[in-house]
Amino acid sequence: MTATDAFAGERPKLSPFHPRQAELNIREAWGAWNGYKFAEYYYDPEYEYFCIRNQCGTYDICPMQKYEIKGRDAEAMLNRMVTRDVTKLGINRVAYTVWCTDEGRIIDDGTIFKLADDHFILKCGSPCTAWLRKSAFGFDDVTVTDISETLAGLSLQGPTSCAVLRKMGLEDIGSLKAFDIRHFPFQGDTLRVSRTGFTGDLGYELWVPREFALDLWDAVYAAGENYGIQPYGEAATNMARMEAGFIMPFVDFTEALKTVHFEHDQTPFELQLGWLVDFEKPHFSGRAALLEEKRRGPRWTLARLDVEGNWPAYGSIIYDTEACKKDIGYVTSAMWSPAVKANIALAMIRSEFLKGDIWVEIYKTKDLRQYRRMARGTIRTKPFWMPDRARATPPADY
């Protein structure tokens, strides 16, 4: 008698890299992302963070949603959907972008890979099939294919990442500029390498057909043996992206199509992503609403804060005075930054209060007792940490 799994359809899917990850996840610290079993961390989040900053690490990006958009109208369709001007994107280049509802609220952010004039790949954090199909309506020659299950992705980040790829035999990888794409032969197929990532550090993303995933893992780890290579999970990723000032969905912003309460989602201008909105190009979804918001200014602004003291401001409320007279915002992300040696945070603040005093109400638990502290916040206009090596071409051979 053959046993059947009554919960087979409910169990998390396994990444094609899972056999190697399972061996290294000695803490069994698993979470979930888009239905995949996903590592929160393997050994220790801070250890993995320091691997990113001082050596190199790998991060499984197979759970990302990946859509292939092809056809004579592919560029026009994407250009009407997203806020950036896709016609300015060169072949074998990547662009970060967002797409919005007609009300100008962000549905999601992601990256567009242009492989040919009629061939693009859109990668994003959440499923977007329905919106892509709606966006393709009315175009005669465009196809949208979900390739999330067939394309494997491995992010390699950190100062020794380029050296590892050189050791792996990828000729002239050092000439790859930020947001460039290059293709290399691999196991009789093709390895696509993009100089992209989510850590604010030197790094690359490696893409192969799913059936070559373990071969890719083994090749990268063989080449990285003397370069301190380690896997890292979501916890270390969150630390690194915060230092770079990168935003995380459902942490720093809420996707418009999944928001319950009115205007609890955000616009590009509220997230300081106005540079992604090109009003010079033809019509795109949300254009009229965003043009009006640009005229009057955003009601909220996501600000980078340097918070005095060393208590991370997790979930804190922000006030205009130390006496907490008026609630003017809230913290979305917070941490003590090892690289910056500072208490940093991202916070949504009512725009009219940005030039005034900012006070953060922080609570901390010590031996089950709650303690409260008011700390002054200072707005920073640049990323907390963005080393020169992140964009150096060629990168130094660490």
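That was protein one. Protein two is written in the same sequence-then-structure order:
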Amino acid sequence: MPQPAVALLACSVGLLVAAARPRADTPRIAIAGGGFVDSATGQPFVPLGANYYRVGPLQEGKVGHATFCPGSYDRSFVEKMMADLAGWGFNTIRTFHVYHVGETGILVSPQAREISPAYLDNVVHFLQTARTHRLRVIFSWDIWLPPSDWWSARPLPGEADCDLRAEWDQTMGVNNFRLHRGSVRTRANGIVTLIEALRARDPDLLAVVLAWELENEACLSQRQAPFAERAASFTFAGRDYALASDTEAQTLMDRIFVQWANCCADAIHQADPQALVSCSVFTFAAVGRGGPGTLSQDQTTDERIPARLQALLGSRLDFVDVHLYAWRTAEQGVADFLRRNLESAEWQAVRQQAAQLGKPVLCGECGVFANYLRSAPDWQRIDHALGLRCLREHVAGLRREGLAGALYWAYGNPDSTVQDENPSLVLFPEYGTTLLETWRTSPAPGEPAQEEQ
């Protein structure tokens, strides 16, 4: 049960979460006027909530997302989490599907022609529990894909007009996931077949799904072809790109991401025309980069190049998601780091483009890190009072900059401890109430700041 102060806070944010009150026939969340709305009432829906993840051993000792895997899925914990989130006043939870194939995977074998019944049971339970507590769910996926003869062989609508490669190119590594035909099919068809399976079980559960996120933090690798050889050129969709030019290289990346997003989004929209499809990114500054088109100037050891928000907004995705965490040092504060990250993502241009297209931009991951909440002489002690101040300043900044909502990382899981790098809500619920209270009391763009009482 929430504490009295938390219960009062939940009431105070009722207007924000009013659209998250599913009835027996759950209304869809749609997009109108550049924001999320309840399709039945037209009332605004502001996604506020948390992320949930569970990792575990998958195969050959490898560890990965295992949220819905039989043996890892914890029904009692999920039920407690949903009750907590709803009780605190949240309306959204974001979580992750898996790429594991086997007895505990999403498919029992690469030759399977159905979602694993045990895996699907857990997904259905998750959505049913969310519906009971009037929560909406965003499903996300890792960059890695399950090996599937079924998904990789099923053609996508419109793929004949795309430049998708029939063979996996070893020199391209993870960059294949954007251009290899079987990989693009697998990503889209994995979602399509989940939609079909859920419709067969309980069609109303599809309305509980706020969005299908194609990938968590989509990126390309600078250390793999075609971007590893800057002196080379690369042909895509009938045009040659001179990769020695930062502008040409960025234009190529943008067009690859747009094609990939469109191929996947078209298939999902065909399977469920009311579905919302999104993709998330980290900022260029988060991996030590200056912004789009700065490859030759970047001084970073991180090979990842995030998808450009402006490119994704221009695709047939319904909205985009940018991950922004509070950070601070002795020299720079939370506001400075937020500004730097947003500038590296071309934020002012993104805001203008999003407004013109009528597409919201969500912050699907936000939170604080314990490493800057520790200090000598007791490096085990985490200063949560400082953490709450950092989160408060950060969320106020997100609201001021026009983000359409914010999801905390993370609620936690059965393995959470008080020493986790990101304080979990299951152990420190005050981070959740701080997010809600700050969002409620902070001005949106164009609104005057509230006077202190």
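The chain has one domain: 4-441. Keep this in mind for the problem set.
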